[in-house]
Amino acid sequence: MKLIKKTIIVLLSIFTAAQACAFCAAAAESDPDSSAIVGDVDGDGLVTVVDATLIQKYSAQLIGDNDLNITAADVNLNDQINVDDATKVQLYAAGLPDSSYAGLTVSEAVQKKKSSGDVIQTPIR
Q1: Within a domain: residue 89?
Q2: Which residues contact 101 (CB under 8 A, 6 or more apart)?
Q3: What whole-number distance in Å separates Cα of residue 72 and Cα of residue 87?
Q4: Is residue 33 included in any domain, yes or no?
Q5: Which of 119, 112, 111 has its CA nearest to residue 78?
Q6: What is the domain extent for residue 83?
Q7: N or C: which end of the chain has fewer CB within 10 A?
Q8: How many structural domains are present in the chain?
């Protein structure tokens, strides 16, 4: 079962890497707010593997802060944007569990994290 999940994630990554270039031009504004959807870094209102690809590119320093919504990219609310956030977006897009706060608004995610007793980091701005 783990092999199947890993295979799905790898295939999604490969598929979206080819498509991501077309969507980079439509990246979201870098002025995030609490109504932004966690994981929706391109601002199209959906959390998709395209968003995961943008997070991967940001993590690899191939794109900058102005190319995606930084607040929406921190999917696990740990004050870091890295491949773990991209993986959470891929899981959410595939309908698999363990997607952290993807799909919630930033304010809903912060509230959910507070109610779970986890430490809240200062949002990335």
Answers
A1: yes
A2: 38, 39, 75, 76, 77, 108, 109, 112, 113
A3: 14
A4: yes
A5: 119
A6: 2-115
A7: N
A8: 1
Please give the chain's pLDDT, 125 residues, in tens.
Answer: 778 877 877 666 676 655 543 343 333 333 346 789 999 999 999 999 999 999 999 999 999 999 999 999 999 999 999 999 999 999 999 999 887 899 999 999 999 998 887 655 555 54
Residue 19: which CATH number? 1.10.1330.10
SS3 label, residue 33: coil
Q: Is residue 30 part of a domain?
A: yes
| CA distances in angstroms from 40 to 53, 67, 118, listed in the order given | 11, 12, 23
